[in-house]
Amino acid sequence: MSRLVTLSDAELVQHCRAGDPGAWNELVERYSRYVYAIAIRGFRLSDEDAEDVFQDVFTRVYTRLDSLRDDSALRPWIAQLTRRRCLDALVSKGREVPAEEVYSVDESTDLAEVEEAFTVREALAGLSESCQDILDRFFTRDQSYRTISNELDLPSGTIASRIARCLGRLRDQLEGRNDASEGSRK
Amino acid sequence: MSNDYLDLRVGEFLEQLSADEGAPGGGSAAALTVAFSARLVAMVARCSGESWGDASGIAAQAFVIAERAGALVQSDATAWEEALTALRHAEASTADDERKDFQLEQKLERAAAAPLEIAELGADAAALASLTAERGAGEYRADAAAAAALAAGGARAAAHLVLVNLGVRADDPRLARALASDQVAHDIATRLLESGR
After folding, report:
1. Of A142, A145, A164, the CB nearest to B57
2. Which pTM does this prediction carry?
3. What is the interface pTM, i.e. ipTM, of the complex?
């Protein structure tokens, strides 16, 4: 695993500003799915339009990173850039976007789900590789306990408990994030 | 008629189950039984949160298993109906048609995949029932044992449907997996039911 993967957003931004090309790659890797998810799930853009949004958003991130005032606010900044570009894309396609939609789109269920999914993904990245692996097998790849047991060479009777413990750690990670974000707002 | 059995009221689903049509049939009933089992496990785990640190993680897994089994109530019926239609066409046809044979094989494959998945989910639900019986709150242990019995019933019914599928041979690894799942669920249910006497 690259050392850059473990950096916080704020640290990653500092590495990008220092001209580390690996940091730019990590930033794009970290946020590419996020940008696509907002474009496709949140705004129902076509793959082609989502690709245009993707290119434009990361070009703007690259050229305007110095304008980011709070380095830890990388994610909301990218979200804002993406939403604006998605609305531009809709308008350029001839679709009228009423003012209320511009403001209400932030609260749409799909965007909220994208945000939630990304928050969970970030929290998952903070778990051990073995936890990430076993949660991915059960929840994403739909593997049975027997398959997980065979492939990881673990006693089958321990799989459910291992998953439960990893979920507990994931919850701790998420609660830690919530505590931190609430603290930062005070 | 609803396209999704899970949207029906329980009474309506039972009506459809007893109707003079092929589907929903044994596979759908087995899937629903496994979903019942997993939901029961979730209930026991959620009621045991104060005394069991892993309870919420076990409940989360039970919900996932119930969701997967619930989806199979419909998809098993659809796959079975399609296989039955293809089988009837093949029997009515006298021509030696390789394309038709291939299509029938594909439909039978799909019809075997759903009960195999149900059997494996049954084994997983039984494993969770075992944990909740051991670690959950004492007053709910009988419910955990009941959940294991339901899981075992669903797994056995589903494994039987894999066994009798015309596209599955005796040495087919899918059959071995289905029977192994049946055995796991059965052993757990037997142990829990006997320990509760």
Report:
1. A164
2. 0.76
3. 0.88
